[in-house]
Design brief:
The protein is of the alpha/beta class and 316 residues long. 56% of the residues lie in helices and 14% in strands. It is elongated. The relative contact order is 0.05.
Length: 316
């Protein structure tokens, strides 16, 4: 079926009108396809705007849908909608409060958790929470008095500051600023001097930095050489050798092995001492009677005569 150009144009125009209506209501804060539940309340005056938020415990759960003035009762009727998932008591309170110091108001649902649940279209009682602006308005007299005291104190402070500025004494502000200015000039001259020294020794500084860089490279190379030389393995082997040497010393201390017995066996020591004494006597006898040992191959036997006490004392 072929649709004529006129029908297409009509469909396009109708779609545009419907879209315009939807967007216009959306900008006003009204969603034509919303399934939110609507309620209403009343206030003595209007401090809200369309789409002002509706909150519960600080969380936004709805918005103001419509604001009307009732000419009979002189009250402002406010219709608002909330998320259908929100459930609260019909005896709850709708509180009007300020959202910030820069202005703006909102509604808060104060649930009483008593009685039956609120249904769509129910009237909910309201209250007004005093805000910062209203508190300032109510207490403007006291505030103006405090402000006057503050201004007087500020004026006294400015007078004291003026006296300090125009003070010409050595302890005055002008003298202090002058000294500070001199210090800054000295610091400036010092910075120029340092800059000149750096400029005059630019080549030396560059050479020093280059030498430092080479030294760093040599240290890095040395570290690599030590790493390749397996220094840790050498230290580990040396540690094992010390452990073995300690074990040998412990064996000697405990009298183990030949050396251990030599160090710890008193009998062997006594035998060695006796042998040494016998050798000493033999050498003394050879010294006293050499002829006896020259004729050791002869058939004539020369009997052994122990040395006398005098000979022993002489020897010692």
């Amino acid at each position: 079926m072929k649709i004529s150009r006129e029908i297409k144009t009509a469909i396009l125009v109708i779609s545009g009108v419907l879209l315009f209506i939807y967007l216009f209501n959306y900008l006003k804060g009204q969603d034509l396809f919303s399934d939110e539940v609507e309620f209403y309340t009343e206030f003595d005056y209007n401090a809200l705007t369309m789409s002002s938020p509706v909150t519960i415990k600080g969380n936004t759960v709805g918005k103001v849908e419509n604001i009307k003035y009732d000419f009979k009762s002189g009250m402002t009727r406010v219709e608002f909608s909330v998320d259908p998932r929100l459930s609260f008591s019909k005896s709850s309170t709708i509180r009007l409060y300020e959202t910030g110091i820069m202005g703006g108001n909102a509604l808060a649902v104060i649930d009483s958790y008593k009685g039956e649940k609120a249904q769509k279209g129910d009237f909910i009682k309201s209250e007004i929470q005093p805000g910062l602006i209203s508190s300032l308005k109510d207490n403007f007299t006291g505030l103006s008095t405090d402000l006057d005291k503050t201004l007087r104190s500020a004026d006294t402070l400015m007078v004291s500051l003026n006296d300090l500025v125009v003070d010409e004494s050595d302890s005055g502000l002008k003298a202090t600023i002058s000294e500070l200015n001199s210090t800054l000039k000295s610091f400036k001259d010092l910075s120029y001097s340092i800059q000149k020294v750096v400029k005059d020794n630019d080549e030396k500084i560059a050479s020093t930095l280059e030498s430092f860089e080479k030294t760093s490279e040599n240290i890095t190379a040395l570290s690599e050489d030590l790493k390749k030389a397996q220094l840790s393995k050498t230290i580990d082997d040396f540690d094992k050798t010390l452990i073995k040497f300690t074990s040998v010393l412990e064996g000697l201390e405990n009298g183990e092995g030949s050396m251990g017995k030599l160090l710890k066996d008193d009998k062997l020591y006594n035998n060695l001492e006796a042998v040494t004494k016998e050798m000493e006597l033999l050498l003394l006898d050879i010294k006293l009677h050499p002829a006896r040992y020259r004729r050791i191959l002869s058939k004539k036997e020369i009997p052994y005569t122990p040395p006398t006490e005098e000979q022993l004392n002489k020897k010692n």
